[in-house]
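Give me the fold.
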Amino acid sequence: MLGIIGAANASEREWCEAYDAGRLAAKRGWILVCGGLSGVMEAASKGAFERGGTIVGILPFGDSKQANKYVTIPIATNMGHARNVIIAHTAEMLIAVGGSEGTLSEIAISRKLGKPVFAIGSWDIAGTVEVSSAPEAIEMCQKYLDEKIPKEV
């Protein structure tokens, strides 16, 4: 499962990168997990949805109807920002696109758990890998999966 994280208020570039990342993830058959709201989350959800992907939205509210319209599996937590811990634990790897303090918390938790985070114009945190685009981030995710999964002899 791939986490795509970032701000609810995305710039045009961030929106496009998140959309491309979601679309490319769905093309590979990966399930997307995100915060389920607007901005980067909605862009990634839309990209994945348009490719027939599954989108899990971990919502900060108690009402699943508040998810963006592309989320296929809304999970209402009523936990506010504490839902970031669930996103970090659920995702196997993450792509951070821009973002502010909420994204920072998801990155920090993910790194604490030893999960890879590929950053597109996001926080410069030790252990994150800065990439220039969604296609590069997806390739790095694939490389991570290829190295993690033992090859058959």
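The domain at 2-148 is CATH 3.40.50.450 (Rossmann fold).
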